[in-house]
Amino acid sequence: MKIPVGSGPVRLSLVESEDEESVRTVVRTLLADRCASDDVAAASDGRHGLSAPLWRSLAVDLGLAGLLVPEEAGGAGAGAREAGTVLEELGSAVAPVPFLTSAVIATSALVHLMSAESADQHAVRDTLAAAASGGSVLTLLLPWSTDPSGPVFTVREEPDGLRGEATPVAGADAGTFLVPALGADGAGLWLVDRAAVQVTPAVALDMTRPLATVRLDGAPARLVVRGPAAEEAVRTGLLTGAGVLASEQVGLAQWCLAETVSYLTVRRQFGRVVGGFQAIKHRLADLHIAVEGARAAARYAAATLADEPDDAPVAVAVAASVCGEVAVRAAEECVQLHGGIGMTWEHPAHLRLKRAVADQVALGTPVRHRARLGGLVGIVPDGECR
Amino acid sequence: MTVDKLCARVAELLRTYPPATTDASVFHRAQFDAGLAWVHFPEGLGGLGLARDLQDVVDTELRAVGAPVNPAGHVGIGVGMAAPTILAFGTPEQRSRYLRPLWLGEEVWCQLFSEPGAGSDLAAVATRAVREGGHWVVNGQKVWTSSAHVARFAILLARTDPEVPKHRGLSYFILDMSAPGVEVRPLRQITGEAEFNEVFLTDVRMPDTARLGAVGDGWKVANATLSSERVAIGGDQARRESGMISKVAELWREHPEVRGAAVHDRVMERWVAAEVFRLTGARLRQRLATGAPGFEGAAMKVMFADLAQSISLLELELDPDAALLYDDWALVRPASVDFLSRGPGYRYLRAKGNSIEGGTSEVLRTIVAERVLGLPGEARVDKDVPWKKVPR
Ligand SMILES: Cc1cc2nc3c(=O)[nH]c(=O)nc-3n(C[C@H](O)[C@H](O)[C@H](O)COP(=O)(O)OP(=O)(O)OC[C@H]3O[C@@H](n4cnc5c(N)ncnc54)[C@H](O)[C@@H]3O)c2cc1C
């Protein structure tokens, strides 16, 4: 049995570079100023108004919309490591912005097509340029729980246009949908304008990432690519998304840990600081250990996506499996160890809990990722093992 | 030095001493003298003063051509604990006397720290070292001493001043295990074998040149040893699917009868945990490359113990018939621990020690909580009390 590449000592850097740290500082500063927990909570009351201006600042002023777009196509030409760093900060603040859905997933799918001969390069580049400038927001039209090897065709290509439905779709407030569809001529990837589809917003567990049911009833569409490249592009987008979602989960988990530690170093009961009780100290130590493990897995996933793509499927499956669970655990501990205040709408812990639970399902549950991983490393439930 | 230059140095070693035709001990001496033993050590002491993680580069190159594996790697106490401590606190004479034979495995080391009355509370050790002219005379009892029966030297923590609080009255020594008055008795473990021992020290004389660090600084020196130990225990799994998980993966691939849909996810969960541990270790080592081992070593060690225990338990459950059997209960006194060459029952039982040896997981969690997370310290009743007045 040959275990996939990367089975030697880890050569990729798992430590934050200076460039990544400077990206982090800029994002963190902006979020501290513009994305307070009160503002985020307002999203759950249906009071929008935060996300559009916040996204404009992140997308346009900081240029994050084009982070992963190559320079020749009007972007910053950065990679998954930088995207991961940004997502750690966005996860920490549970920022309600479409960075992951538009600037990572849909963008990576299109960037993949820049080197596909069969793709309509005008369509690819026009769309990327518009997205990179912050002028348009994209999303991939798939159920948000689709994992990188899951079914990607929920829409059919009919003679009169695209027909079908996907639900629940994340980032459905996008202006342009990237739609994988199957038709008489095989697979295709299409661009569909928001005006041509029917979007029914859903009440989401995590209102900071709006979900909707999207219907296409013979929608007019612009073809980007036909054939196997269409599916490859979609899977690249999903794999990149799942890989850096792990960083979002790490950022969220780190916030929960830090917030809990700082609360328990001031909260007193029984005449003592609560954080001094050993039962609490050990729980938090275990959580710290879990978060550090998740961080290493997330950084490795981002590093392989950037620099060692052959190992990315394994690395992403590992990170997605572990980071989702650690984020949920951190958020649960955060609620529990805050006592009554942790149960309130006013305290920001619930925003993390809801995001963590939704994130654990997004782009594939941990169980799905482990099943996929088993196939990659030759440990399968039944039948022949490699 | 760049990675290229380092690889060139390895190539030079392999050219001058082709592993296929060179005796292993000759090869290892040459490797040490070329500074390729532990590249983060200084030149002249087996290293090149490079970042610690560059040793991986050397080891990978050597493994690739089938060069013999350094025997000292099997005896972790010397390489993992004594060596970094000697490097940090030793005199030039001590460094040049001990480090080379230690790395070559020609002289085995053991660790005389724990005592019947001082385990987790290591600073409470009662073994006394009393100065007599240019010598020290040692009396006391140590326990759980791995490898004492094969060791040439020991790192020893002893009390030199009982009048001051416990942390301040300790000194650290290098003990010659062949000195008169050192008696080693096997202690049988739950695995059947006797990997560790009791060591009785009766009027053992040591020269003052055997002291490592200043008189009264023993706690500081011991802490350097312990943090290196935790890094050594926690941090050296370089390849994917190596260590205990390799046994489970092998069982799954080669024995279709153990496979089942329900248990598959649990196997993959452990596989993921093993990979996460490997990556966390790699990240820690990359960070250590710029400095000394920190308290994160404690976190790694807790992670390692949990992992080894959960994998070895799952291995038993996967193969129920094998789980009812045991390979051998004979009381042997092994020179080193080898998890992988024994049966699953041994692996499970031996792994129980992973959360006890080198600091229990409870004590390490407290260290992580205090030193890494900054949570308040434990209540200390013995902190400012002279050691001899503490009730025990
Ligand atoms: C296989 C093996 C090999 C070893 N090899 C060596 C060796 O070579 N050299 C050497 O010097 N020692 C060695 N040891 C000894 C080891 O370091 C000690 O056993 C360990 O430090 C625990 O000390 P103790 O056995 O006295 O347990 P105790 O300290 O008595 O602990 C008993 C229990 O109480 C818990 N506990 C203790 N204090 C606290 C606290 N403050 N808070 C919460 N829980 C606490 C412990 O976690 C443990 O569960 C070895 C041990 C094993 C198992």
Automatic annotation (TrEMBL), chain A:
<comment type="similarity">
    <text>Belongs to the acyl-CoA dehydrogenase family.</text>
</comment>
<keyword id="KW-0285">Flavoprotein</keyword>
<dbReference type="InterPro" id="IPR013786">
    <property type="entry name" value="AcylCoA_DH/ox_N"/>
</dbReference>
<feature type="domain" description="Acyl-CoA dehydrogenase/oxidase N-terminal">
    <location>
        <begin position="17"/>
        <end position="116"/>
    </location>
</feature>
<dbReference type="Pfam" id="PF02771">
    <property type="entry name" value="Acyl-CoA_dh_N"/>
</dbReference>
<dbReference type="Pfam" id="PF00441">
    <property type="entry name" value="Acyl-CoA_dh_1"/>
</dbReference>
<feature type="domain" description="Acyl-CoA dehydrogenase/oxidase C-terminal">
    <location>
        <begin position="235"/>
        <end position="366"/>
    </location>
</feature>
<keyword id="KW-0274">FAD</keyword>
<protein>
    <submittedName>
        <fullName>Acyl-CoA dehydrogenase family protein</fullName>
        <ecNumber>1.-.-.-</ecNumber>
    </submittedName>
</protein>
<dbReference type="InterPro" id="IPR009100">
    <property type="entry name" value="AcylCoA_DH/oxidase_NM_dom_sf"/>
</dbReference>
<dbReference type="GO" id="GO:0016491">
    <property type="term" value="F:oxidoreductase activity"/>
</dbReference>
<dbReference type="InterPro" id="IPR009075">
    <property type="entry name" value="AcylCo_DH/oxidase_C"/>
</dbReference>
<dbReference type="InterPro" id="IPR037069">
    <property type="entry name" value="AcylCoA_DH/ox_N_sf"/>
</dbReference>
<keyword id="KW-0560">Oxidoreductase</keyword>
<dbReference type="InterPro" id="IPR036250">
    <property type="entry name" value="AcylCo_DH-like_C"/>
</dbReference>
Automatic annotation (TrEMBL), chain B:
<dbReference type="InterPro" id="IPR009075">
    <property type="entry name" value="AcylCo_DH/oxidase_C"/>
</dbReference>
<dbReference type="InterPro" id="IPR009100">
    <property type="entry name" value="AcylCoA_DH/oxidase_NM_dom_sf"/>
</dbReference>
<dbReference type="InterPro" id="IPR006091">
    <property type="entry name" value="Acyl-CoA_Oxase/DH_mid-dom"/>
</dbReference>
<dbReference type="InterPro" id="IPR013786">
    <property type="entry name" value="AcylCoA_DH/ox_N"/>
</dbReference>
<dbReference type="Pfam" id="PF02770">
    <property type="entry name" value="Acyl-CoA_dh_M"/>
</dbReference>
<dbReference type="Pfam" id="PF02771">
    <property type="entry name" value="Acyl-CoA_dh_N"/>
</dbReference>
<dbReference type="Pfam" id="PF00441">
    <property type="entry name" value="Acyl-CoA_dh_1"/>
</dbReference>
<comment type="similarity">
    <text>Belongs to the acyl-CoA dehydrogenase family.</text>
</comment>
<dbReference type="InterPro" id="IPR046373">
    <property type="entry name" value="Acyl-CoA_Oxase/DH_mid-dom_sf"/>
</dbReference>
<feature type="domain" description="Acyl-CoA oxidase/dehydrogenase middle">
    <location>
        <begin position="110"/>
        <end position="204"/>
    </location>
</feature>
<protein>
    <submittedName>
        <fullName>Acyl-CoA dehydrogenase family protein</fullName>
    </submittedName>
</protein>
<feature type="domain" description="Acyl-CoA dehydrogenase/oxidase N-terminal">
    <location>
        <begin position="28"/>
        <end position="106"/>
    </location>
</feature>
<dbReference type="InterPro" id="IPR036250">
    <property type="entry name" value="AcylCo_DH-like_C"/>
</dbReference>
<dbReference type="InterPro" id="IPR037069">
    <property type="entry name" value="AcylCoA_DH/ox_N_sf"/>
</dbReference>
<keyword id="KW-0560">Oxidoreductase</keyword>
<keyword id="KW-0274">FAD</keyword>
<keyword id="KW-0285">Flavoprotein</keyword>
<dbReference type="InterPro" id="IPR052161">
    <property type="entry name" value="Mycobact_Acyl-CoA_DH"/>
</dbReference>
<feature type="domain" description="Acyl-CoA dehydrogenase/oxidase C-terminal">
    <location>
        <begin position="216"/>
        <end position="373"/>
    </location>
</feature>
